[in-house]
């Protein structure tokens, strides 16, 4: 049967419209969550940690019927942990009409992207961005985190240095970035308040391969303890090169250095590195079933960010279930609700920061394990 051209066009147009409606109907059957993580670059393992936590939560939620009958669908958006890529990733999330984000992972990228997410009404829960600058003084309504801030982590590190390590002279280094410099400054300030001598406060260039010059400065300063604010690639090199150059000094860093990849970089020199990390929920007997769910899939339940990402996904799901798939209502619900999670009681203040968070100090070992540090 021959169909006139104009009728063909009408039929084709109707077909396209029908397909679009079907696509919308299909999309409406799921709730989309973007994982904004470093999928490329030197910090991809932190993104993997977040993916493991989110995947475990999503599997459990979907197996139980989803959220009000809708399954969760996740997608990865890469910001490479780069501040310049943060807004690019945020605009992609907004353009894809996704209203919920787990991430961003790194503070610099999170700070750069947060105004876009907040202005566009996208609920963001980061399990790992610790810089106070993300939330302090911003009046954001849609930005939350399931990890403490550097002005909680820094004092915890400084308290350990003052009361347990008891060094004579401390050198404080950082990577000149939002996260690293911020927490290094927090530690320095707390040490000075306690009259602990800070012999050196200096930035290094992230991505360099030779830190001989700074190690020479550490020797000259007579430091017997080094605090480094930054991530594991540089900390690993500092540890290894210090050992190679005969500098016997204890080193400590924030959760950004607590990555199993540091063992391959530092070798045996990593033994005894001190690190502040979120308390490990995997060690609690009441979380045994959850730990098994992680391990059954070959995932690490005791990493730095897996449980925080799991918690972020679960509180998001519970909030959507309670108030519906409406980002503004979900944000309102998060602000006023306390959640009982494997990581403990989760409740936020008006800024989207946790009301309480614990940063124990761990001793890192050359076999990749860690133990609570005693001194």
CATH class annotation of the largest domain: Alpha Beta
Percent helix among the residues? 40-55%
User: What is the mean predicted local confidence, pLDDT?
Assistant: 92
- Pattern of helices and strands: HEHEHEHEEHEHEHEHEHEHHHEEEE
How far is the first residue's CA from the last residue's CA?
A: 87 Å
Please identify which CATH superfamily of the largest domain we are dealing with. Response regulator
Kindly report the spatial arrangement of strands forming the biggest sheet: 7-6-8-9-10-13-14
Radius of gyration: 23 Å
Sheet of most strands: 7 strands, mixed
Give unreliable regions as ranges: 1-27
- Named at the architecture level, the CATH assignment of the largest domain is 3-Layer(aba) Sandwich
What is the 3D shape? globular
Structural domain count = 2
Structural class: alpha/beta
CATH fold node name of the largest domain: Rossmann fold
Report the portion of residues in β strands. Answer: 15-25%
Count of helical regions: 12
* Number of DSSP E strands: 14
């Amino acid at each position: 049967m021959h169909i006139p051209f104009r009728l063909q066009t009408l039929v084709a147009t109707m077909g396209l419209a029908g397909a679009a409606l079907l696509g919308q109907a299909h999309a409406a059957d799921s709730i989309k969550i973007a994982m904004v993580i470093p999928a490329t670059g030197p910090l991809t393992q932190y993104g993997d940690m977040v993916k493991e936590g989110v995947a475990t939560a999503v599997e459990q939620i979907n197996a139980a019927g989803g959220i009000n009958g809708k399954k969760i669908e996740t997608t990865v958006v890469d910001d490479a942990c780069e501040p310049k890529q943060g807004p690019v990733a945020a605009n992609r999330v907004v353009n894809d009409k996704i209203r919920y984000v787990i991430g961003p992972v790194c503070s610099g990228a999170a700070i750069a992207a947060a105004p876009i997410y907040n202005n566009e009404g996208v609920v963001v829960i980061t399990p790992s961005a610790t810089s106070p600058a993300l939330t302090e003084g911003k009046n954001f309504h849609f930005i939350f985190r399931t990890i403490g801030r550097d002005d909680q982590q820094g004092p915890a590190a400084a308290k350990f240095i003052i009361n347990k390590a008891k060094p004579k002279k401390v050198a404080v280094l950082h990577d000149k970035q939002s996260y690293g410099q911020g927490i290094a400054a927090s530690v320095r300030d707390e040490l000075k308040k306690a009259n602990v001598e800070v012999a050196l406060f200096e930035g290094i260039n992230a991505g360099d391969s030779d830190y001989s010059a700074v190690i020479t400065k550490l020797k000259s300063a007579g430091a017997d303890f080094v605090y480094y604010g930054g991530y594991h690639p540089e900390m690993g090199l500092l540890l290894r090169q210090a050992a190679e150059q005969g500098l016997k000094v204890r080193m400590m860093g924030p959760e950004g250095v607590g990555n199993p990849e540091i063992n391959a970089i530092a070798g045996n020199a990593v033994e005894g590195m001190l690190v502040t990390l979120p308390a490990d929920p995997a060690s609690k007997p009441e979380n045994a079933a959850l730990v098994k769910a992680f391990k059954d899939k070959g995932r690490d339940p005791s990493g730095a960010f897996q449980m925080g990402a799991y918690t972020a996904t679960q509180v998001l799901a519970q909030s959507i279930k309670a108030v519906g798939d409406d980002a503004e209502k979900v944000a309102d619900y998060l602000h006023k609700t306390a959640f009982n999670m494997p990581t403990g009681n989760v409740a936020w203040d008006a800024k989207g920061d946790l009301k309480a968070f614990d940063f124990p100090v761990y001793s890192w070992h050359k076999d990749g394990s860690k133990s609570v540090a005693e001194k």
